[in-house]
Specification:
- Two copies of one chain form a homodimer.
- By secondary structure, chain A is an alpha+beta fold.
- Chain A has one domain: Electron Transport, Fmn-binding Protein, Chain A (Pnp Oxidase, Chain A), CATH 2.30.110.10.
- In chain A, 25% of the residues lie in helices and 43% in strands.
- Chain A has three helices and seven strands; from the N terminus they run H-E-E-E-E-H-E-E-H-E.
- In chain A, 36% of the residues are buried.
């Protein structure tokens, strides 16, 4: 799969999983909704997160920007499996900046269900990769 | 969600995502099929992996055993979202040991599609956690 093909499959998916590194050097993993714009992946945290775990990803990225984001497709027919991955570095956007507003617009277009957004995470993708069994 | 509930939802899923840390300290993310036995998650690598990426997870775990494994459920109705996570430490099992054979049996029962297994990864789960929007 070419990087361009991986990026297209990634951009079309509805959910992905974000891996960050926590301050003790352990991996941290959460599902995210997202929007892709070129080689940047945007994701948001709800305005009023109910659990501290929802904010851990932001603290992790501030301390260590290395992130990996995965989209995968499972099927009981294993000739139809595929996954695509975006590896890069994360940035927590300042609220009110043009980039944050742009990201919120992109996310609102993809997810009418999205509630008010708090912080926005931008991931600058250094490498799109993927695998398909078919 | 209690740890027991998280474990049950996790065990019933067909696919999960494994996060490891690579030698440069960056997160690495791949989908896995798996079987749960108590507080251990077993996963296998195909006998003849076609890509080096399929083996990276094993090298990563040997160098840094910290892993996180996520199962999530996406639905356009965001009142039905949930995820469950297993955080723990990984071990690459020696081929031919009783534990490796046990794991291969469990995996074959869950996945008749599974081809010959090469290495088996065991993850000792220190913490089951989860979240549900409903």
């Amino acid at each position: 799969m070419t990087p361009q093909q991986a990026r297209e499959r990634f951009a079309a998916a509805r959910v992905a999983r974000l891996a960050t590194i926590d301050p003790s050097g352990r991996p941290h993993l959460v599902p995210i909704v997202f929007a892709v714009d070129g080689d940047t992946v945007y994701s948001a945290v709800d305005d009023k997160p109910k659990r501290t775990t929802e904010l851990r990803r932001l603290g992790n990225v501030r301390a260590n920007p290395s992130v990996s984001v995965l989209v995968d497709h499972y099927d009981e027919d294993w000739s139809k499996l595929w996954w695509v991955r975006a590896d890069g570095t994360g940035r927590v956007l300042e609220a009110g900046t043009a980039e944050a507003e742009h990201a919120i617009t992109l996310l609102a277009e993809r997810y009418p269900q999205q509630r008010a957004v708090g912080a926005v995470l931008a991931i600058d993708v250094a490498r799109w990769s993927g695998w398909s069994s078919g």
